[in-house]
From TrEMBL:
Protein name (record): Charged multivesicular body protein 1b
GO BP term (any one): vacuolar transport
Superkingdom of origin: Eukaryota
Sequence similarity: Belongs to the SNF7 family.
Pfam families, per database record: Snf7
């Protein structure tokens, strides 16, 4: 139940991020209209709104990734708990069988143990794959920067020109502090 709620929350955060992206685009369209009409004050207000929407979209996406990572960790814990219980049962059966020294039972139990161990390997690999796909927090920053630069090069853009940091931060901070 908690796992379902976590996954649902992650999807909801993703939807909110997309909604903010759409609202940002709408604000940008309003900026163009206001500039065409020569109303710079209204254009500035729409620009602040667009930046705020963009920051909210990024925050929603970041929170969604974190919730996804938590959900994957919970899934791993649940799976490991089930495997541990199964292994405990096998060990108890092995103890009883070893006391009786019935080779057929020992062989059957060892086969069962190997099967469960293989299942554990498969489940562990699946969870590791899930974790590596959902945990964005452990992505090396230099790889992220290299990908951003590569995408900018493909688009024929100058990355430093397209991502003004000083302006965005000051407007975003003033809007965020005003909201608080």
């Amino acid at each position: 139940e908690h796992l379902f709620n976590l996954k649902f929350a992650a999807k909801e955060l993703n939807r909110n991020s997309k909604k903010c992206d759409k609202e940002e685009k709408a604000e940008k369209a309003k900026i163009k209209k206001a500039i065409q009409k020569g109303n710079m004050e209204v254009a500035r207000i729409h620009a602040e709104n667009a930046i705020r929407q963009k920051n909210q979209a990024i925050n929603f996406l970041r929170m969604s990734a974190r919730v996804d990572a938590v959900a994957a960790r919970v899934q791993t814990a649940v799976t490991m708990g089930k495997v541990t219980k199964s292994m405990a049962g096998v060990v108890k059966s092995m103890d009883a069988t070893l006391k009786s020294m019935n080779l057929e039972k020992i062989s059957a139990l060892m086969d069962k143990f190997e099967h469960q161990f293989e299942t554990l390997d498969v489940q562990t690999q699946q969870m590791e794959d899930t974790m590596s796909n959902t945990t964005t927090l452990t992505t090396p920053q230099n790889q992220v920067d290299m990908l951003l630069q590569e995408m900018a090069d493909e688009a024929g853009l100058d990355l430093n020109m397209e991502l003004p940091q000083g302006q965005t931060d000051s407007v975003g901070t003033s809007v965020a502090s005003a909201e608080q």
